[in-house]
Amino acid sequence: MTMSIIHRITGGALYFGTLLVAVWLMAAASSQATFDWVNWAFGTWLGRLVLFGYTWALMHHMLGGVRHLIWDTGAGLEKHTASKIAWATLAGSVLLTILIWVAGYMARGA
Questions:
Q1: Alpha carbon of 38 to those of 25, 35, 44: distances in Å?
Q2: Cβ(10)–Cβ(61) below 8 Å
């Protein structure tokens, strides 16, 4: 039940995060000053925290979708197995988020 609620919350958070992507794209299409300001805002500690949360929500929601896809095949529906898959979804989303951010920082050279 908890994972179902978290899946719905992350889905809602993705709406907000997609607005951030749209703002970034609109800034890129407008003036250099606007784009620099948006990049500055996303580069602050708060901006990076929001982007980190967006990355986690995206990974968690994606893995939740994979979990449901597995269930659609009829596999993993037993309570014990479903609990293991739920924990794997949570651990996998955290691990993927960290890997994405590490790869991003390595690519930037920071």
A1: 10, 5, 10
A2: yes
Average pLDDT (88-102) is 97
Tell me the torsion sign for CA atoms 106, 61, 65, 19: negative
Its pTM stands at 0.87
d(CA 10, CA 3): 10
Cα 36–chain centre separation: 24
Task: Count CB neighbours of 101 within 10 A.
Answer: 15
Single-letter residue type at 101: W
- Asked whether the predicted pLDDT for residue 110 surpasses 80, the reply is no
53 and 64 Cβ atoms separated by less than 8 Å: no
Domain with 97 in it: what CATH number?
A: 1.20.1300.10
Residue with tokens 């929001």: 50
Closest CA to 54 of 22, 18, 90: 18
Number of domains in the chain: 1
Residue-number span of the structural domain to which 18 is assigned: 2-108
